[in-house]
Design a protein that fits this description.
Length: about 375
């Protein structure tokens, strides 16, 4: 399989084997583990500004210290070369990636946005069936190189489609054993939104500009069809919710009667499974957009925060798949503002938003730069006030 960065010495197989020797990764090879419940949702404010919200869930059993540290990486223009392409990135970008020792940086990029406002989110998709390098007449890249390729070369979703069609994307089985395989949500500064999936060796391109949501398995078309199960979900603006017409009298009065608010949401799926989170994020978003549409990005941040809060996974609440599995939780969340070129992030241990503005970044630097994100170390982000 192709290598990683041209300036990185070890191959991905050697990297994973080295990490396995230290942390007993070979015990995990029998069962893929890792990111199983990521969620992306997007919409436009009334002023036309796209707002993209995403959660990252990670449950890889590699130890609390490793799990605690993520990084925000800034990749300047022409700062990396994908071995399969042999050309440097023309666009600078910011990436969210795991800080795992021995693994080359691009192997753990999970999300990012470039200087043109294109955003890419890689999300677990166990059903992925990538292409074969045998007989390929175009450059061959690993699936984990898709995010840096798109961020480093594409300004729009249309350019992203052409870029994907111009390469052969192959599997990386040992890395997939740690982090699973991906499909991708790609959104640009004009609000164009696509989903890229590989099924049985074929690239599938889905228009996601209206649904605006992506989670994990099963595939995207299943998630769309599954929405039909909630076709009667009540979303009307009226405060009058249909009342059961055949009430009876009892010692406490007429029953059943509505007492309080929120009964229109009782049909929402409440679990943390990818299909449940897909439906919940979509229905809440669509209801809010139609009843109280956000006027600008500030309103959009408020709406996005509410949706992210609703799908936030609390540590210990999602059961393990095996004795070698760790409990999945929401490591971090991001809100990306493609038109404003801003990225907001928060972590499990500190829910206060932190903002990174591209206006403060030089994409002409000679080497990438990084800043650590402490998932548990920056606790709790509480600010004291005095009367």
């Amino acid at each position: 399989q192709p290598g990683l960065l041209t300036n990185s010495a070890p191959s991905i197989d050697e990297d994973v084997q080295s990490l396995g020797a230290k942390l007993a990764v070979m015990l995990l090879m029998a069962q893929p583990l890792g990111v199983l419940a990521c969620m992306t949702t997007s919409f436009r404010a009334e002023d036309g500004s796209p707002v993209v919200a995403r959660t990252m869930e990670l449950g890889v059993p590699l130890g609390e210290k490793l799990l605690d540290v993520w990084k925000i990486m800034t990749y300047p223009r022409k700062s990396l070369v994908l071995a399969g392409l042999s050309v440097p990135n023309e666009l600078g970008f910011v990436a969210m990636q795991a800080a795992y020792p021995s693994l080359a940086p691009i192997a753990t990029i999970a999300d990012g946005m470039n200087e043109a406002g294109l955003t890419v989110a890689g999300q677990t998709f166990r059903g992925a069936g990538f292409q074969s390098a045998n007989g390929s007449t175009v450059p061959v890249i690993n699936f984990y190189e898709v995010i840096p390729m798109l961020l480093g070369s594409c300004k729009t979703v249309d350019e992203a489609v052409k870029a994907m069609q111009a390469v052969t994307v192959v599997d990386a089985p040992k890395l997939a054993a740690l982090f699973s395989r991906f499909h991708w949500s790609v959104i640009d500064a004009d609000g164009g939104s696509l989903v890229f999936e590989y099924l049985d060796g074929d690239l599938k391109v889905h228009d996601n500009s209206q649904v605006g949501t992506l989670t994990n398995d099963p595939d995207f078309r299943f998630q769309l069809q599954n929405l039909n199960q909630w076709a009667t979900y009540p979303t009307q603006r009226s405060t009058v919710v249909p009342q059961f017409p055949y009430t009876v009298q009892s010692e406490i009065g007429e029953v059943p009667m509505q007492v309080g608010h929120g009964f229109n949401t009782r049909g929402l799926p409440g679990g943390f499974s990818p299909p449940d989170r897909f439906v919940r994020a979509f229905l809440l978003k669509q209801t809010a957009l139609n009843v109280f549409p956000p006027k600008d990005t500030d309103d959009g941040i408020e709406l996005a925060t509410g949706i992210l809060n609703d799908v936030h996974i609390i540590r210990g609440t999602v059961s393990r798949l095996s004795e070698t599995d760790f409990f999945e939780l929401t490591n971090w969340a991001v809100i990306k503002l493609p038109r404003q070129r801003q990225l907001l992030f928060r972590t499990y241990g500190s829910m206060q938003w932190k903002r990174l503005s591209f206006a403060d970044i030089s994409f002409n630097a000679s080497v990438p730069a990084s800043a650590p994100i402490h998932m548990f170390g920056d606790r709790l982000g509480i600010k004291d006030i005095k009367p």
